[in-house]
Amino acid sequence: MKLLRGAALGALVMLAACSSVPLEHSDSDQPSSPAAAKNADVAAEPLRVPALSELGDSPARPLAGKYQATNWASLPGWSNDDLQHVWKGFINNCKGLMRPISGSLSMPARATPRVWQPVCEAAQRDVPAQPDASVVRQFLQSHLQPWRVLDGAGKAASNTVTGYYEPVIQASTRQEGEYQWPLYATPSDLLTIDLGQLYPELAGKRIRGKVDGKRVVPYDTRAQIAANSQRQPKAIVWANDPVEAFFLQIQGSGRALLPNGKAVRLAYDDHNGHPYVSIGKWLADQGEMPLAQTSMQNIKAWAKRNPHRVQELLNVNPATVFFREEKINDPLLGPKGAYSIPLIAERAIAVDPTFVPLGAPVFLATTYPASGQPLRKLVFAQDTGAAIKGAARADFYWGSGDEAGAQAGRMKQSGQMWVLWPKQAGAPSAR
């Protein structure tokens, strides 16, 4: 943390210490955009490209990365990417890029609208709504320049590529029968204080809590919420499996299949501000199973054998995620990432925005989970993650359901990336 001016830092530290509210980075593994942006259905809106004169600007935000201009022929496997769903992703990305910059220093670094305006204008003007792959490829090669992401030594950066997905659970809007495990909406008394709004030196840091008299104190833990019916927020749905509901919270969003056959999305909205604690490690520490075997399937089996200890298990993790309900208008589109754009399976990644600004197309070269089979795709940097740090580090979005979950769970590969940036705009930059 950088030092603040004089007494300002001391006052904030005392506030955090006296109130016991944890001082934390913004929950970068969850969407961090304003509520209005989170709730907007960007994908359903038409693309509108403002004139350059309509677009404001904000101070440049230095990127930590180094980049080397290269050509399309140097991208391994570029010509073999079928580009399925890329144009839908590109147009949705333009919708996000053309949004005005809020100027909030607590937001992750994002690509500037002014840099992308000519490219998005050409996409709207020159390309049909449903182009074939050859048209998409030609457009991209004509308008974008690949920049290889380098490490600190100026060599091609290589880093870990993990995977994530959108869980699907069985749930009901009523507490009945097997549906006994609530997933909550954000409580009305939860405070989220964005310190970056007041002090740029604390950009990306927040505290969460509630008011108790004249003090701000930590918000209720998972155990406290479960134990006090008067303190329980409104339940959006009730799941039929406590472990699946728990893992949905870890992923940050998911789909709930209702008894009538309909599905709704539970989208991340906020959390109670407490740190995550692994229930798998607790089971291992208790001697219930080896740490290497603490998969969701094995934890579910343990819970079925020990129903009287399920709440004890869940309470090990004091953190609780709160959701909002979203309609699913296009089954192809997943939850919104940190950029407030719906993710498309196998076409979106979470990145470290200090190296890759949100909104940038990226060519990713890695391998399929637990194999040496090449996985080389054009993807979009539309999400962030608390563990996604460093040059060429990525989290690959696999989509929804069990198969996507299995792929995500196995994925821990090595990968490289190239940022695809507008020609004539110079090296990648951010605002």
UniProtKB/TrEMBL annotation:
It catalyses: Exolytic cleavage of the (1->4)-beta-glycosidic linkage between N-acetylmuramic acid (MurNAc) and N-acetylglucosamine (GlcNAc) residues in peptidoglycan, from either the reducing or the non-reducing ends of the peptidoglycan chains, with concomitant formation of a 1,6-anhydrobond in the MurNAc residue. One of its GO terms (biological process) is peptidoglycan catabolic process. GO terms for molecular function: hydrolase activity, hydrolyzing O-glycosyl compounds; peptidoglycan lytic transglycosylase activity. Its EC number is 4.2.2.n1. GO terms for cellular component: outer membrane. It is an enzyme of class 4 (lyase). Pfam families: 3D, MltA. Keywords: Cell wall biogenesis/degradation, Lyase, Signal. Residues 168-324 form the Lytic transglycosylase MltA domain. Residues 1-19 form the signal peptide. The keyword Lyase applies. PANTHER family: MEMBRANE-BOUND LYTIC MUREIN TRANSGLYCOSYLASE A (PTHR30124:SF0). This is peptidoglycan lytic exotransglycosylase. It comes from Candidatus Paenalcaligenes intestinipullorum.
